[in-house]
Amino acid sequence: MRMVDIIEKKRNGEELTSEEIRFFVQGYTEGSIPDYQVSSLMMAIYFQDMNDRERADLTMAMVESGDQIDLSGIEGIKVDKHSTGGVGDTTTLSLAAMVAACGVPVAKMSGRGLGHTGGTIDKLESIQGFHVELTTEQFTKQVNDIGTAVVGQSGNLTPADKKLYALRDVTGTVASIPLIASSIMSKKIASGADAIVLDVKTGDGAFMKTYEDAQQLAHAMVQIGNNVGRNTMAIISDMSQPLGFAIGNALEVKEAIDTLNGNGPEDLMELCYTLGSQMVVLGGKAASIEEARQQLQEVIANGKALEVFKRFVEAQGGDTSVVDDPSRLPQAKYKFELPAKSSGYIAKIEADDVGVAAMLLGAGRATKESTIDLSVGLVLHKKVGDEVTEGESILTIHANSENIAEVKEKLYQHIVISEEKVEAPQLIKEVIT
Ligand code: URA
Ligand code: CA
């Protein structure tokens, strides 16, 4: 087989065979096919697209390029959730405990990553003593005993995707639905998921800015999952403003605990119920979305979800007293209010830029080497659509420095108040089952 023939075939809009797809993925991973040929093929795919079979084959070729996590020691259907980024998204922490309390095992492999705030692991590490270094045996046993565990990324998962994503990044070929969908799905499948729930975000703070793109991506990923034997569902949710109230690491852990107590922000609770319902159905513990939602509401009301979270924190070495008293989480030295400059209605809280403001305080990582300040961040008191009067606080800034002029300026620039009444955006835009 010659790579140049594969490139020309795709350039001419023809379908690639399974063998051809495996050939280029393997060859590129091993280094026998050079960057310039693969970047040419990526551009051909960008323009000519791939059909459902090609997308499924590409996904599985990337899965098979490296290690695959074996979760067969865990009883039950392992359902994983993936969200395509967002600002202040604390969902994973509450959701894992809620779903586990309904009897569906949640075996989570997580990373630190770059962004406005830390990843799931960084957030959890704001609980004193919490660690994610578990052996496979400990990880398996903990999920069987308690229902959930979070472990740091290890092993050589989807090396083909790592190489391809880095190449796409510098060749103008990231924004291709078949390439994004197969990239995301390959990582979930290699991590051992039997079934997958996807939260595709749309809006200013999301990877997919337009609704049409989000829709296409969601449908593409559901199709891939179902075609490779992993039941997959998805939702499309709004990320035009941050999720919940808190943006920061310890602040989001507190918000997750509030949610498990049934006192979380309305949008975060709704998102947990919606995604959780899909996970409980896919995990085989409820026959319908409605039944699953009822079960989730029960484990919040009777405290079982909170109890699972507590046991999970304890099993991974964390100080469980923060669950009863979140004020024991790391606290920033200073709190500053951001008073509204005029009266009216909140028209915009631009998620991306508000996230950057949190990052300027030290809540996120700009490069792999930067350190994170777990205590700092923002807590919103208003969301889009809310009424506000001049001088009233829109949000509280939690900082470890008094020098926050730049942060304030950024926030004032990207939080818009209008004189006319504004509709709150709809959070769950579409449910794909
Ligand atoms: N996220 C991924 O993991 N892969 C892509 O290709 C794009 C976003
Ligand atoms: Ca939040």
Automatic annotation (TrEMBL):
Taxonomic superkingdom: Bacteria
Keywords assigned: Glycosyltransferase, Metal-binding, Potassium, Transferase
GO biological process: pyrimidine nucleobase metabolic process; pyrimidine nucleoside metabolic process
Family: Belongs to the thymidine/pyrimidine-nucleoside phosphorylase family.
Organism in which the protein naturally occurs: Ureibacillus yapensis
Gene Ontology MF terms: 1,4-alpha-oligoglucan phosphorylase activity; deoxyuridine phosphorylase activity; metal ion binding; thymidine phosphorylase activity; uridine phosphorylase activity
Protein name: Pyrimidine-nucleoside phosphorylase
Subunit-structure text: Homodimer.
Requisite cofactors: K(+)
A GO-annotated cellular component: cytosol
Summary of the function given for this chain in its UniProt record: Catalyzes phosphorolysis of the pyrimidine nucleosides uridine, thymidine and 2'-deoxyuridine with the formation of the corresponding pyrimidine base and ribose-1-phosphate.
One Pfam family matching this protein: Glycos_trans_3N
Catalysed reactions, as listed in the record: uridine + phosphate = alpha-D-ribose 1-phosphate + uracil; thymidine + phosphate = 2-deoxy-alpha-D-ribose 1-phosphate + thymine; 2'-deoxyuridine + phosphate = 2-deoxy-alpha-D-ribose 1-phosphate + uracil
Matches recorded under NCBIfam families: PRK05820.1, PRK06078.1, Y_phosphoryl
Ranges where the Pyrimidine nucleoside phosphorylase C-terminal domain occurs: 345-418
Transferase is among the record's keywords: yes
Keyword check for Disulfide bond: no
EC number annotated for this UniProt entry: 2.4.2.2
